[in-house]
Amino acid sequence: MVDAALQNGTAHRESLFEAFARRLPDGRRYGVVVGTGRLLELISEFRFEEAELEWLRANRVVRPETLDWLADYRFRGDVWGYREGEVYFPGSPLLTIQATFAEAVMLETLVLSTLNFDSSVASAAARMVSVALGRPLAEMGSRRTGERSAVAAARAAYIAGFDATSNLEAGRTWGIPTMGTAAHAFTLLHDSEEAAFRAQVEAFGPKTTLLVDTYDIRQGVETAVRVAGTGLGAVRIDSGDLPAVVAGVRDQLDGLGAVDTKITVTSDLDEFTIAGLSGAPVDSYGVGTSVVTGSGSPAAGMVFKLVARRDDAGEWVSVAKASASKASVGGRKNAARRLDSTRTAREELVFIGDGPGGEAEFEAGTSLRPLMVRLMADGVADAAYLGPEGTAAARAHRAEAMQELPIEAFRLGRGDAAIPTTYR
Amino acid sequence: MVDAALQNGTAHRESLFEAFARRLPDGRRYGVVVGTGRLLELISEFRFEEAELEWLRANRVVRPETLDWLADYRFRGDVWGYREGEVYFPGSPLLTIQATFAEAVMLETLVLSTLNFDSSVASAAARMVSVALGRPLAEMGSRRTGERSAVAAARAAYIAGFDATSNLEAGRTWGIPTMGTAAHAFTLLHDSEEAAFRAQVEAFGPKTTLLVDTYDIRQGVETAVRVAGTGLGAVRIDSGDLPAVVAGVRDQLDGLGAVDTKITVTSDLDEFTIAGLSGAPVDSYGVGTSVVTGSGSPAAGMVFKLVARRDDAGEWVSVAKASASKASVGGRKNAARRLDSTRTAREELVFIGDGPGGEAEFEAGTSLRPLMVRLMADGVADAAYLGPEGTAAARAHRAEAMQELPIEAFRLGRGDAAIPTTYR
């Protein structure tokens, strides 16, 4: 596309692209947009290095003039969008990029990979957080997604309200609290379960978490308390998705005098099994596969569409494709969330043009919360959205935005978006 | 785990870990193991750099003695496994790592991330290849998975039989044929569909592929042939999952004299919609979301378990955890596929111990194909499995292995593994 558009000059037409989701994943009531902070860093660094240019040249992928253009490439345009951690609905204009056509279209795959993957994880994670009812959640799914995606998944889950990750690189890069755990292999390495527990307690003290289900859970709990004493920090049950098993371990711990020893549960948990454990005496959860794979929706379904461009006279022209099943809405967008007098979200308003404005039209007692912020100006990202600070801010913003959701949004069953999206 | 095991010396016990899948994804009949070649390169390069060590030190994640051990870390052990591209079944010992406990357990996340993600993509892709009935398939899903996973996904789909990818980095790194396409944005950038088609034909000649469904498909096809002539290479329909739409375009092209113009179809295709188009005049397919997300099974469900270790006397001890729902089989494994006289696979034989051997036990006319090869010796990978050559070899091996599958393996509906796994 860039090769052909550079040849006829249309590559330099100023253009506006928009990333949005036509629908929420499979019966979900809301989504959480994550990936924005990572994306801004990736856009800032996006260059074609000599090895890449050489490969394009050797394989005649583009013309020599286009290679020269790629060699000089860096993004110099503007980006607006929803703040990272914001709740979204179908049609929410999550990210808009204004630049020349060639400069902006070059970023399509990067924009969508980042937003689709990270938002898929965050949207699933947010549901787990809401059913965990305040009990801490640790992300432990690195092994169930690509080795680089694992770091992004840890970040997305944290922004969505998880408390820690087992991914140390995510701790180092994004400032996320990390935690570790002993696997069954550690027990099996030793000559007995008791020897393994003793080694762990010697290394980390009695406040450690002992994995008690390598052999027999009842025997494991007994050994754990005998080795660590009643001050044992916690036991982990990796087959603890059954409420009765957890209740049995609690009774046993209490009977042994280990009344302050906590129970952490891991075992292919998802939002449904976590909800099913809400009445059981679980103190914390570790979640793997389901969170890093978006719990059934591994790609958030976001698309990146040209919505406006200048014509030869310099005038902006709204554009949109017309295919029946995949129509899009052309034009520059702005967005605001309509809140009622209790600050509960009631409507996602997408203004075509430069809106909002016209607030007088709305019912008394309602307010509009603007949703879009400037993320990059002339190719320079706003530092507030980057790095560990941006990640922490996104997590805080997600917590605030979630508080506005109507109670229906927290249903686990399939259904429609919690609030309607209206174009104005 | 490593920190505690270094402290009591068990870290240095020679250990054998095994990666395997307890079950196939959700009703599938077979899996295709991919990721091995990437993994061997990643293991070879696995080091702790100063910035990482400094972060571990500053956050007191491990003791200073363990930091010294990590600073010297490089893998020096042995790896055996199924050849990349091999078909697998529940319990197939896909990868075994023999090294000290600490050296091997350090690789767990890397092993599983790589095998789970890549094999998930390959196992879905192989089903699409078999229902495409020889029509070429292009992988176009980079935007639907993490930005680095996208490169791995392109490679996995290619090994599984896809013909090309839109991911140029996968072309550069792994030697995979690449292709490009014009998006709706390219049409919308121009003042008319005709102007867009003209720009594309001027840049690439009439053998290009024109996207005809930005506005009205019938009008688009007419304009495409008028601009490019009856020698037009192909039209792409991005809403072409309806057989009737494809048939209508074929009739129209033929009526316009463009009898050699091909039709390529893209539109959220998966193995089921591809099968549904088998009677329609489609010439090639482009597949995105479903292939890079494993078509409903985004993680292949592989696990990495300690199966044997030496004791203090230097004797090997088989180990396995006993939890009811997640039991594993201890001991060193070897594996072979039993083929009948027509070279059709009938059984996955997993030998506990050093097997095979004892071939006389098998029925006359059957043969055993050994499945495991040495992948790394003393930390050095066998070069035959690396880089573009290893990728091409894996693709060829997959084609051969698939030919052994019984016809039942190609059912799309849910069911059991195509052949049973037997432990001996």
Automatic annotation (TrEMBL), chains A, B:
- Keywords for the protein's UniProt record, in alphabetical order: Glycosyltransferase, Ligase, Phosphoprotein, Pyridine nucleotide biosynthesis, Transferase
Q: Which InterPro entries match?
A: Aldolase_TIM, NAPRTase_N, Nic_PRibTrfase-Fam, Nic_PRibTrfase_pncB, Nicotinate_pribotase-like_C
Report the EC code(s) recorded for this entry: 6.3.4.21
Pfam families documented for this protein: NAPRTase_N
Q: Which part of the chain is the Nicotinate phosphoribosyltransferase N-terminal domain? A: 1-116
Enzyme class (EC, first level): ligase
Reading the lineage from the top rank, the first entry is: Bacteria
Q: What happens to this protein after translation, modification-wise?
A: Transiently phosphorylated on a His residue during the reaction cycle. Phosphorylation strongly increases the affinity for substrates and increases the rate of nicotinate D-ribonucleotide production. Dephosphorylation regenerates the low-affinity form of the enzyme, leading to product release.
| Pathway(s) this gene product operates in, as recorded in its UniProt entry | Cofactor biosynthesis; NAD(+) biosynthesis; nicotinate D-ribonucleotide from nicotinate: step 1/1
Which catalysed reactions does the entry list for this protein? 5-phospho-alpha-D-ribose 1-diphosphate + nicotinate + ATP + H2O = nicotinate beta-D-ribonucleotide + ADP + phosphate + diphosphate
Question: What are the GO MF terms of this UniProt record?
Answer: glycosyltransferase activity
Per the entry, what this protein does is: Catalyzes the first step in the biosynthesis of NAD from nicotinic acid, the ATP-dependent synthesis of beta-nicotinate D-ribonucleotide from nicotinate and 5-phospho-D-ribose 1-phosphate.
* UniProt family annotation: Belongs to the NAPRTase family.
Q: What is this protein called?
A: Nicotinate phosphoribosyltransferase
